[in-house]
Structure formats: C-alpha cells, structure tokens
Amino acid sequence: MSKAVSALDGATFEGFAKVEETGLRGMITVRGDLASKEMVVAVKAATGAPVPAQRKVTSGDKGAVAWMSPDELLVVVDYASVNETVATMTDGLKTSHALVANVSDARAVFRVSGDSSRDVLAKLAPVDFARDAFGAGDIRRSRIAQVPAAVWGNEDGSFEVICFRSVAQYVFDVLKVSAQPGGEVGFH
Hints:
By secondary structure, the protein is α+β, with helices and mostly antiparallel strands. It contains 4 helices and 11 strands. The strands form 2 sheets. Strands 1-2-8-11-10-9 form a 6-stranded antiparallel sheet. A 5-stranded antiparallel sheet has the order 4-5-6-3-7, with helices on one face. The radius of gyration is 17 Å and the shape is globular.
C-alpha cells in the first residue's frame, strides 16, 4: 500500500510573501439545499461549524465549511478523518436530495502569507483584495491566472488558494513569480 502524498510534497517559496503548499487536506463537495434543516444539522455534526452565508467560510472544532455556490459547500477537514466525515454527512443527508463526495485527492491547497500577500493575489485574480472588500472568512471562486481556483482569507491575514491537483505546479509557479522580490505593487 502506498502512502498518500500531496501534489507538490510541501513546496515553498519565500519572496516578498511566502507561498507554500499546505499538504493533504480532507475536502468534501456537498451539494443540496443549503437552507434545509437536514443540511444545517449534517454540516454542524460533521464540522462543528454553521452553514456559511454567501461567499463566506465558517469554522468549527472539526473543520471549516466554504460556500461555493447557492447549492454547494466545500467541507475541509483533517485528511485522516475525511472518510468518517463523508459517512457522517451522508447519513445526516440520507432523507434529502444531496450529494456528498470526497474530492481530497483531486485538489491542492496553497497558503500565501506575509504583509504583501494581497499584492501576490491581486496580480493573478480578478478579485478586489482591498482589506475592506476581502477579509478573514471571505471566499471567492475565480481563477488564478488561467485556471479555476478558490481563495479565502484567514484570521491571521494569510490566504488559502484551492485548485485542481492537475494544475498545482502551474498555480505554485505563478504564485511564486508573483511573489518575486521587486514585484511588489504596493497594493496592501
């Protein structure tokens, strides 16, 4: 049996901001009626977090939940507990028209941190990264350069970038180029 590895095995780059692959994450796509009682209870049971509002991320003692669309959530948990979380959510939603799918191995996650992390992202995504427009707990589905991605803000001022695993090297490379010393734009 082979051991699971992340897309880029923890690649990091330190420029005017730090870019790092965060390693394996448990990620579950959940589709259904986000306002239903069953969804609210299932999400809370699985993560300890409430169902987030539009373009928001909520956190609980067992994971985080990101709003992805009017009928879709991304549940993020510890990689080792993802199958248990899928089972918990599937059981909680068994009377609902819903989909619960483990997408952990199809995704890669990067953290962009440092005082100028907004500069890195503002050069790559058509998103308003001004502090008053995008803060902790905010998420946007957009793109990083030429590929689909989601970006959310953390409490410590860093950002998480989620993309398909198949484009992880490309995303890391464009984040790295954007964070090169001398490329600061003074956005922050």
